[in-house]
Design a protein that fits this description.
The chain is of the alpha/beta class and 549 residues long. Helices cover 17% and strands 17% of the residues. It has seven helices and 30 strands. The strands form seven sheets. The chain has an 18-stranded mixed sheet. Strand 1 and strand 2 form a beta hairpin. Helix 1 packs across helix 3 and helix 6 crosses helix 7. The protein is extended.
């Protein structure tokens, strides 16, 4: 009773003086590109802020408000009257609060509401009656709640909703005919739930559906026939799928990463429009001999491939631009068929040791284009033949974090003026002798002005006296540092001086300097001993002379 009395007083004061009710004093106000207002009351403690409540009650009901943000305000429940004047409101964000239920009456007067965000609350039940009571609603976000019950009370009413996000909940099943009223749905996110199957729910009539996320559930098989022909993007990774049943489809993006597929059957050719396929993280040991005329990206990383499949060829994949074979037990990256790529990735292959001259003989860039190679983080790779990439038109080369000690100048694309130098050699145990002087002379000046980040961790591992020293230390030196005896001199005399914050200078001696100091101390000790002996003898001689007198 006391709370309602205070609200009445506030409303009366607001009537007297509009300045007291300026919500932009309490919240942050801005406008869209179209000039429509956005009222941002994020984290303004609405649950205990009576002034803010009164300001919301006094908003002009005839004024269009594009968006009202009430997120992270510890809201448990809202008064049904709080938003009743905002009949022209288009979007409301009530995320990151403590609401446990959806009170439909709160939204019934919002005749223009198109976007409702109720994510990151504690909601346990979703009743699709909300979609009928707010017919203008196009986007509904219920992700990151605790929903385990779906109620279908809307009947046969067709809704306008085109985007529904139910991800990160505890949903295991849906009531019969739940999807019947969602014929305008274009985007459906059911990821991170407890769903075992979608076959019995009938999605085929959703002829507007373009994108489905069903990843991180408990699916054991994937039937393409349960999806409408309009579907373009299907994300079904991180399930328990062992078999895929293909049907002719318009699908362009298929992600089935980290499932339990041991084979891709040849009837996958039914996916004629497929452009991007991700089957990483399965147990594939080969790839089928199928024609995929439109495929552009193929990720077969993290499988059981022991070699590059011979079926990966230009004849089977004429438009393939990106291939990822990382984290497979491949000892030899030899391409057994002609293939044109714009990007090839072979990283984190533990048993890969060498790349010889013929390894990439059949790999090239498409006509009038160049290729990017990423062959990094292979802990056993210690040797790459200097002519391994000679026939390629390289855009960039990343051979970072391998075990390569020597890199031939012929290997990298910095030799000609027509190619931009984009080479990552960082993280290798490089032996900085005269054979690597070209890095200082040719590569470093180009990278310094174009890709300075590729020099951050470019260091020497040998000789020991300059181990872990960044090559950038010698940028601009006129001497051919790695080809002179300067390193021998440094071994004896190098001193690193650092000045601490309090102005004290600290010298860190090297083993060479310690040796020099040791020799000096020994010589100095000998001279002292000789001096003492000579002094004693002189003293004895003088005593003998004195006795004669």
């Amino acid at each position: 009773m006391f709370i309602y009395l205070r609200l009445t007083v506030f409303c009366f004061l607001c009537t007297i003086s509009s300045s007291l009710c300026d919500i932009c004093v309490t919240c942050s106000c801005s406008t869209t590109l179209d000039g429509l207002p956005i009222i941002d009351c994020h984290e303004r403690d609405l649950e205990r802020n009576d002034m803010l409540i009164s300001e919301l009650l006094m908003l002009d009901e005839n004024k269009v408000n594009n968006k009202l943000i009430l997120s992270k305000n510890q809201i448990i429940n809202l008064s049904p009257h709080l938003l009743k004047k905002l009949r022209l409101l288009k979007s409301i964000d009530l995320s990151e609060n403590f609401m446990k239920q959806i009170y439909i009456i709160l939204y019934t007067n919002l005749n223009s509401l198109e976007d409702l965000n109720l994510s990151k609350n504690a909601i346990t039940t979703f009743d699709d009656l909300l979609l009928r009571e707010v017919p203008s609603l196009l986007t509904l976000n219920l992700s990151y709640n605790q929903i385990d019950t779906i109620q279908h009370t809307i009947g046969e009413t067709i809704t306008n909703i085109n985007s529904l996000d139910l991800s990160h909940n505890n949903i295991s099943n849906f009531p019969n005919k739940f999807f019947d009223s969602l014929t305008n749905l274009q985007y459906l996110d059911l990821s991170f739930n407890r769903i075992n199957s979608l076959e019995e729910y009938g999605l085929t009539h959703l002829n507007s559906l373009k994108t489905v996320y069903i990843n991180n559930n408990f699916l054991t098989s994937l039937h393409m026939k349960m999806f409408p022909k309009s579907l373009l993007n299907l994300y079904s990774g991180y399930n328990l799928i062992t078999e895929i049943f293909y049907e002719p489809s318009e699908i362009e993006v298929l992600n089935i990463e980290y499932n339990r597929l041991f084979k891709i059957r040849s009837n996958a050719i039914a996916l004629k429009h497929l452009k991007h396929l991700n089957v990483s993280g399965n147990i594939l040991s080969d790839f089928p001999n199928i024609l995929c005329e439109n495929l552009k990206t193929l990720d077969i990383s993290c499988n059981n491939l022991s070699s590059i499949p011979e079926t990966l060829s230009t004849s089977n994949f004429p438009l393939l631009a990106t291939l990822n074979v990382s984290k497979n037990p491949i000892r030899n990256l030899m391409f057994r068929s002609e293939l044109n790529l714009q990007l090839f990735v072979a990283s984190n292959i533990s048993i890969l040791e060498t790349i010889d001259k013929a390894t990439f003989a059949k790999l090239r860039a498409p006509a009038k284009e160049c290729i990017n190679l990423i062959i990094s983080n292979n802990k056993g790779l210690s040797l790459i033949h200097e002519e391994a990439f000679k026939h390629m038109n390289l855009c960039s080369l990343d051979i970072s974090n391998n075990q390569i000690a020597y890199i031939a100048q012929k290997l990298v694309p910095c030799n000609t003026n027509s190619v931009t130098c984009n080479v990552n050699l960082q993280g290798n145990p490089l032996k900085c002798n005269c054979s690597l002087q070209w890095i200082l002379d040719d590569m470093m000046p180009k990278l310094y002005h174009t890709q300075l980040n590729l020099l951050d961790n470019l260091r020497c591992a040998w000789p020991p006296q300059i181990s872990k020293t960044r090559m950038l230390h010698w940028y601009g030196w006129k001497d051919r540092v790695f080809c002179t005896k300067m390193l021998d001199f440094n071994e004896k005399m190098k001193i690193d001086a650092t000045i601490s914050q309090n102005g004290v200078i600290t010298f860190n001696s090297t083993p060479g300097l310690l040796a020099v100091l040791g020799v000096a101390i020994v010589v100095f000790s000998i001279l002292i001993i000789v001096g003492i002996i000579w002094t004693q003898r002189l003293h004895i001689k003088r005593r003998r002379v004195n006795r004669k007198f």
